Amino acid sequence: MKISIITPSYNQGRFIEDAIQSVLAQNYPDFEHIVIDNCSTDNTLDVLKKYPHIKWVSEPDHGQSHALNKGFCRSTGDILGWLNCDDFYLPGAFCAAAGALQDTNTDGVYSDLKFCDAEKNIVKHYRSHRPARLLSLFHNFISSECFFFKRSIIENDISVQEDLHYCMDQEFAANILYHNYRLKYLRTCFAVFRWQGMNKSLDTPPLRAKRIREGIRIFNRHNGLLTIDEEKPFSRNLYTLGRNLLKPYRLFLKMTTV
Fold this sequence. Notes:
CATH topology: Spore Coat Polysaccharide Biosynthesis Protein SpsA, Chain A
Largest sheet: 9 strands, mixed
CATH architecture: Alpha-Beta Complex
Structural class: alpha/beta
Radius of gyration: 18 Å
Distance between the termini: 27 Å
């Protein structure tokens, strides 16, 4: 099964070579690596030119979500993956994912995630758990770096929502689950997320508020029960309360996952 890796890129020339080399280090027999760059002004293009196997473009886009959809449309693989330009895969990820996706009853597979600092020193291990549709509306337990899925998902018009800029990976996974695709959790680790000081997931008050608003948008799109106003403080507190109430459920899933 051919694997296509999509990497959205913007001014991360310091780190993108680690991402490229981690794909090559998989030693997987049939893959393609597509980089969609948004007119980087640092040394990103110089790095890309060093690797003739990469399919890349550097042109204006409307953000990370738009770049991902462009990459998915250009891809030709049976299995798709999404690797941000400052993150990297761990050895054996492709073989493990492809092996799991040989099962006709599995549409996507994901794993735990490691975190590192800017110099690639591992600082944390995040343990995920088996799929849970309700939880996907409040918490992103499927890390994009550790998610591989079959092409049929994209061909059936599931894409990354381009109006989201902070929680698009959460919505993408929730949309897949709410379309009844079958995902499988593997208790291993496919990739490493790099904390490098410019991440969208930094826990600052302005970014936290933006993520909560987008989380409410995801909830409204998929729950089918009630609508929450993402602009009202009370509604944002209500959504946060829902996240907190589900923490014991998350812990239960982790404790009961083999």
